[in-house]
């Protein structure tokens, strides 16, 4: 779908929960952002959750067993000029504003991940809260920029099409942000936290099969979970831009 067809993209996200824009970036524009990505990840040790301090990444904790993870705040964006140029695109800014129909905290934070360690169905390596079907506690519109091809073999994100309204209902009317009754003492943001026999489970979610340079526009009220399978010899490089009211 063409990035310029803003109305159709918004309508698709409202209906299905997500819209994959093919070939959003190509050629040198894609390679420039990947070079920025690779340069900073070379400085991050294995298994690290990192953030930026000045122009250098610093380790917050060593618990990201699938690979490496980096969190950016707006004050860090200047360290990534090609990514910043992308985020300053009027197409993305206007799409976000039109989607929320109100002033928006655009590009409030960015998460990057490089995953390359083997994860399989019998492994305990990737049992994280986002590996379970859920909605996000804070409503966001996210842009997933893929720097590698992704499918079920290397950590594709899965979501249940047309579940956005259900997730919104639970988030607004049933979820308590102050509750710690959810998984691992967190906010209860899964259907199974409320229903003994939920209408949807992980088996109902479809994988997002993307190519390097594709962009997924995603509403976090749609029921979704992060990819939890990474086969030997494969990797996933991903940048997620968060936008919130």
Low-confidence stretches: none
**Measured distance between first and last alpha carbons:** 25 Å
Percentage of residues in DSSP E strands: 15-25%
| Largest sheet composition | 8 strands, mixed
| Mean pLDDT across every amino acid position | 92
Report the strand count: 11
Q: Biggest sheet: strands side by side, in what order?
A: 1-9-6-11-5-4-2-3
Structural class: alpha+beta
Q: Helix amount, in percent?
A: 10-25%
Rg to the nearest angstrom?
A: 17 Å
3D shape: globular
Number of helices: 5
Order of helices and strands: HEHEEEHHEEEHEEEE
Tell me what you see in this structure.
This protein is of the alpha+beta class and 245 residues long. It is built from 5 helices and 11 strands. It has helices spanning 6-16, 27-41, 81-87, 90-100, 164-173; strands at 18-21, 48-53, 56-62, 67-72, 105-115, 140-146, 158-159, 206-207, 215-219, 224-225, 236-244. The strands form 2 sheets. It has an 8-stranded mixed beta sheet. It is globular and about 45 Å long. It starts with 5 loop residues before the first helix and ends with a strand. The relative contact order is 0.22. The model has no long low-confidence stretch (mean pLDDT 92).
């Amino acid at each position: 779908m063409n990035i310029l067809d803003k109305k159709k993209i918004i309508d698709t996200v409202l209906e299905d929960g997500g819209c994959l824009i093919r070939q959003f970036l190509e050629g040198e524009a894609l390679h420039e952002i990947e070079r920025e990505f690779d340069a900073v990840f070379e400085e991050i040790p294995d298994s690290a959750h990192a953030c930026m301090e000045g122009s250098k990444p610093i380790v917050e904790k060593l618990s990201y067993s699938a690979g490496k993870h980096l969190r950016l705040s707006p004050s860090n964006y200047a360290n990534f000029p090609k990514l910043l140029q992308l985020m300053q695109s009027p197409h993305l800014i206007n799409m976000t504003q039109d989607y929320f129909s109100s002033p928006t905290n655009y590009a409030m934070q960015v998460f990057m991940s490089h995953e390359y360690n083997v994860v399989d169905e019998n492994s305990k390596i990737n049992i994280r809260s986002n590996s379970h079907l859920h909605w996000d506690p804070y409503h966001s519109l996210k842009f997933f920029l893929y720097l590698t091809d992704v499918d079920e073999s290397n950590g594709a994100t899965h979501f249940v099409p047309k579940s956005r309204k259900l997730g919104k209902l639970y988030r607004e009317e049933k979820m308590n942000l102050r509750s710690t009754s959810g998984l691992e003492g967190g906010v209860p943001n899964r259907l199974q936290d409320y229903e003994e026999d939920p209408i949807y489970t992980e088996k109902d979610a479809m994988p997002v099969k993307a190519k390097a340079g594709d962009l997924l526009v995603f509403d976090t009220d749609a029921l979704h979970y992060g990819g939890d399978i990474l086969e030997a010899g494969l990797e996933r490089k991903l940048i997620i831009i968060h936008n919130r009211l």
